[in-house]
Write a structure and sequence with these properties.
Number of helices: 5
Structural class: alpha/beta
CATH class: Alpha Beta
Helix content: 10-25%
CATH superfamily: Ribonuclease Z/Hydroxyacylglutathione hydrolase-like
Number of domains: 1
CATH architecture: 4-Layer Sandwich
Distance between the termini: 37 Å
Order of helices and strands: EEEHEHHEEEEEEEEHEEH
Low-confidence stretches: none
Largest sheet: 6 strands, mixed
Strand content: 15-25%
Radius of gyration: 16 Å
Length: 203
Amino acid sequence: MNVTHVTADADVFTCNAYLVTGERTTLVDAGAMEGVVDVVRDHTDHLDQVVLTHQHGDHVAQLDAVLDAFSCDCYAYAQHPRRTHELDDGDFVKIGDETFEVVYTPGHAADHVAYVSESTLFSGDVVVHNDAAFDYGSFGRTDMDGQSRERLIESIKDLLDRMPDSVEHMYAGHGDEFHGDVRDVVETALSRAERRQPKYPSD
């Protein structure tokens, strides 16, 4: 599967947005970087769909621009004026050339979902490989209104239950992508979250 991080050169706070080319050319999250449309166009002149992990601003600020430019479908768990397809836990969606299961993973955001196939995890912010808080196994912040560490822990457990052992590629909403034993990274994040290690001083 061909995955390109299209917000890698951003100079503003944004999520990682990933372009996946193939049978269903897909943008996973739209990000907040002005000019993301131009970066996508550097790689393809056609986009079938945008699939959202959740609707925090750093993931959707450029959604309208992308949808206007490519006139493509938009898949999301929660209501959005531009949503064309509603996602639910247990649904399946084709991203690139692979079929991914939608796993509902709230805690960081009430509408958060992750996408998992036999080889790949798009984890959004529920679990990341590394970030400013932890290396090798971090998790989404839960210190703001509407967030819950307890629910996040349950979401990570659900993700582990439904993620095949064959998954060896993880593309998260922040930090670096990871290739290797993804299950170990996710289990490390779960252990930290369960020990109530604060991600930020106010967490």
